[in-house]
Amino acid sequence: MPNTTKPNTTKIVFIGAGSAAFGLSLFQDLFSTTELAGSTLTLVDTNQEALDRMAALADVLNRHGNAGLTIEKTTDRKAALQGAGFVLCAIAIDRNRLWRLDFDVPKKHGIRHTLGENGGPGGLFFTLRTLPLIVDIARDVEAICPDALFINLSNPESRIVLGLSRCTGVKTLGLCHGIFLARWFICQILGMAEKEVDVWGAGLNHFQWLTAIREKATGRDLYPLLREREATHDPSFTPLARRLFHAFGLWVTPSDDHTGEFLPYGWEAGEHGFDFRHDEEGRVILRDLMDG
């Protein structure tokens, strides 16, 4: 019989594609599958240098991964949105400099917190400067491609998605890689490779409960083994998640610092904040590698 499968003509617009953090994570997802073959990926950023760098990387990954996407780039957001079926958004305003203030200023006034990004006063500050810009983008989506699914990856994730649901009519979904970070923690306790373990979760971004942990090859429930091995594991390892695990019987994602933002006693997991220095050093190394 003849192949009647229609070619994939989906247009995916990635706003904030110059991001050194979320850009790489999304590229890993987009170019590690052939299911999107035939789609057009339009990369958008206001920083031309960062956009050019990430577009060059996208071309390499697309070829070597045989992903079969058509890669475009532009600084013109409205032009990019024409015909879009999916809009990915990963943006921040002067991210590290202002986020550091979100953490340091409340702490100076006696607020005890872990990150100052998604919860507490810091999360509020982060939201107040980020949400207006994302709403502007969403308004463009409403006007230009109203049927597109708006996939937000910008923090503060849960607050941004709540704001979009209240202030706009776009179809919105919030995504985060955090659930897989939780899998890493679990696998350290289980003594298993991440590729051997499947996890399912439900809840808010940065505060999901793993409803199931299973061995990928057999479907075996790994919660009994986790409870057994956790009892003798190093007590200094991810203590907040384990305190909640003992109280509720399920593992919480994604990590103590993110989870701690949703709890009044979350600071007990540590008040060191985000490692801005390491992050900046990593960005420099990444730029040098990509430019070299």
Description:
The protein has 292 residues and is α/β, with parallel strands linked by helices. It folds into two domains: 11-93 and 121-174, NAD(P)-binding Rossmann-like Domain (Rossmann fold), CATH 3.40.50.720; 178-253, no CATH class. The protein has eleven helices and nine strands. It has helices spanning 22-30, 48-64, 77-80, 95-108, 120-144, 157-167, 178-190, 223-230, 239-248, 256-259, 276-291; strands at 11-15, 40-44, 70-74, 86-89, 149-152, 171-174, 197-204, 207-215, 251-252. The strands form two sheets. Strands 3-2-1-4-5-6 form a six-stranded parallel sheet, with helices on both faces. The longest helix has 25 residues, at 120-144. The chain is globular, with a radius of gyration of 20 Å.
Which secondary structure elements does this structure contain, and how are they paired or packed?
Layout: E1 11-15, H1 22-30, E2 40-44, H2 48-64, E3 70-74, H3 77-80, E4 86-89, H4 95-108, H5 120-144, E5 149-152, H6 157-167, E6 171-174, H7 178-190, E7 197-204, E8 207-215, H8 223-230, H9 239-248, E9 251-252, H10 256-259, H11 276-291
Parallel strand pairs: 1-2, 1-4, 2-3, 4-5, 5-6
Antiparallel strand pairs: 7-8, 8-9
Helix pairs in contact: 4-5, 5-6
